[in-house]
Amino acid sequence: MSYLDDILKSRRDTRHFTADEVPDEVIEKALQAGHWAPSVGLTDATRYFIIKSDEVKTAVKNLFLDYNKKAEELTDNPEQKEHYKSLKLEAIEEAPIGLIIAYDRSVLNQFTIGTVGSNEAVKFSSVCAAQNIWLSLTEQGYGMGWVSILDYYQFKKILDLPENIEPLGYFCIGKPATNYDNQPMLQQLHWKQKSEAPVCTEIKNVTKNSIVDFNLKVKKSAEPKPDFSRLLQEKIDSKTKPIGSLGTLEKLAFQMATVFETLNPKITNPNIIVFAADHGIANHGVSAYPQDVTRQMVGNFLEGGAAINVFCNQNDIRLSIVDAGVNYDFPTNANLIHAKIAKGTQSFLHIPAMSETELQLCFEKGKSIVEGIAKTGSNCIGFGEMGIGNTSTASVLMSLLTGLPIEDCVGKGTGIEDKKLTEKQNILKKAIENYSGQAELKQQLAYFGGFEIIQIASGMLTAFDNKMLILVDGFICSVAFLIAAKINPDIKNNAVFCHCSAEKAHQKLLDHLDAKPILNLDLRLGEGTGCAIAFPVLKSAETFLNDMASFESAGISRK
Q1: Which letter does DSSP use for residue 283 in this model?
Q2: Residues 138-147: pLDDT tens digits?
Q3: Which residues form the Nitroreductase domain (predicted)?
């Protein structure tokens, strides 16, 4: 067995250190070993931060201890719980040196060949660096412990790490105080036995796609019974007001009662879903913001700091966040719905944005998500989106599905300058010219679609099937509605167009759909904010229909 084999076999996640100092040359040699690690696309994205300050170590330790309380509660096994408490899980203050190994996500703002298909390869490169550092320290007679039981949001905050820096964890470096009987500590405490050999399986066959093709043929919805429509209109007209004097509220009340099939409609468990995904076309500079903003904004949603959060809180609307295809791996315990198709679409400038299998998965996931919400008793659902580059995707789809020239369908999106707008129009025009596929909906959606846009369209169709009121936000969601309406025109009966966006193509699209929005506030934020802001108007329509006195009950003479 070689010396390297000995190091690999004896390598331990050190958790207990002596007070011996670590010479500078030891750290320098270890960091150089980390720098020699493979780096996808030669990004050199790995970054290091050394910590020797007792104040900083104490702050990190307190952060660990706070989060570790949650870890202790993850097992109901009393014996296992005691074993957990007996573990020396960290030595943050004890270790002479703290090291943060991180990666710089800003390198992804420029095209890197090695990251096509998965930007997370940048993270994996940093893990290779951590492994090299671990091995180098072991060879020099030192050890390293990896602390990952942390609230990473707070971790970055207390250390003032830049937004683009993503830490793998906190690493403790020093002289090992014990070799744990040359066993992993968890094995020594009978927590878990390490297997003797790696698990390796040979794959010999390709699995055929078993996904059932979505059906574009839908059954027509039943027309409301004439008696019901007459009774409903009589109820509206009998309120103590001149006929038609509540304008749009009367139309909304009639629509709501028709959708819910009751003369006394009531919105229950309203829910707004924000679908987030990345778009390959964003790599061509069609947005004022880098693609990484999609991931950042989803984090903002989860932290409760976005506009949609405050408006949903204001109006007591439940908010659901969906990862439909963000170019990032969110923690599995993040408070979002995991429906990732892939880490962003491909750029439709030259190749299809997605495969037909991915398109089908979008329809399946969108349907499943809304069916789950319908089972909670929700009968009113709003749709929002987040995705850098998705106005470009929506613009192309709008042009193809309405026949309008692309120039009429392109706007400034996130706020690009006039020169950039011209470039955006030219790029999208070229993309359409490059398309040689069939003029069928399925092929067009696969070639130009976005994961979040297709999931929204599917969700809207499912909401219609579940007799839910469908709140349509701005330009992107209206394009998703356009797709849904191509599949089932009757969906318009359930749709409430909440506002007219400042995105210039939105009014043209609303005209095409013959849709009259509730509000016109020059909004162009997305996120479903228009749905949340328009919601009180819907509640006013519900309230007047249910609670306002009639001429008869109030003893007031009719006209």
Answers
A1: G
A2: 999 999 999 9
A3: 8-175
